[in-house]
Design a protein that fits this description.
Low-confidence stretches: 1-23
Number of domains: 1
Helix content: 25-40%
Mean pLDDT: 78
Strand order of the largest sheet: 1-2
CATH class: Alpha Beta
Radius of gyration: 17 Å
Largest sheet: 2 strands, parallel
Number of strands: 4
Number of helices: 4
Shape: globular
CATH topology: Rossmann fold
Strand content: 5-15%
Length: 152
């Protein structure tokens, strides 16, 4: 197996300063350590209003349907997520099929966007979900979904 395709275990702990839109620098070896060239994909608004993540990450944008103002520009969260699910998959598909994405080997996507995996597979790109929250939060979600913990 080539060094670039090996998967090394990583911690589920997040490093200090790794926010919801920052690649997690504390979850294992640096992405460039095995010659990988990762691309960080986020919404157009996020990429236009925050500094880029820096080396070794390239950046690419998809649309959430609210390119000018992002989540804050939509008064209704349900409307935002509905529009994101309607617009996001199409722009991700376009990105995966674009000339600059011809070398995509895998799509790692936040588990809060399950449609990303459904978009990657028909494009011939293997996909893997990751959890952007701590393991404890994911355990609580699991308990709620299993019906062992009720929310009021």
């Amino acid at each position: 197996m080539e060094a670039a395709t090996r998967v090394r275990p990583s911690s589920c702990c997040r490093s200090r300063g790794a926010g919801p839109h920052e690649p997690d620098a504390g979850a294992g070896p640096p992405p460039g350590a095995h010659g990988l060239r990762p691309t960080f994909v986020s919404t157009r608004h996020v990429l236009s209003s925050t500094p880029p993540p820096g080396a070794p990450f390239r950046v690419a944008a998809i649309s959430d349907g609210f390119d000018a103002g992002g989540f804050a520009s939509c008064p209704d969260p349900a409307e935002y997520f509905s529009r994101l699910e309607a617009v996001g998959p199409e722009t991700l598909r376009e990105l995966l099929l674009s000339e600059e994405a011809t070398s995509v080997r895998i799509l790692m996507y936040d588990s809060h966007l399950p449609w990303a995996g459904r978009v990657a597979r028909p494009a011939g790109v293997p996909a893997a979900a990751f959890f952007s929250q701590s393991c404890a939060v994911n355990d609580v979600y699991g308990e709620v979904w299993a019906g062992r913990w009720r929310c009021r």
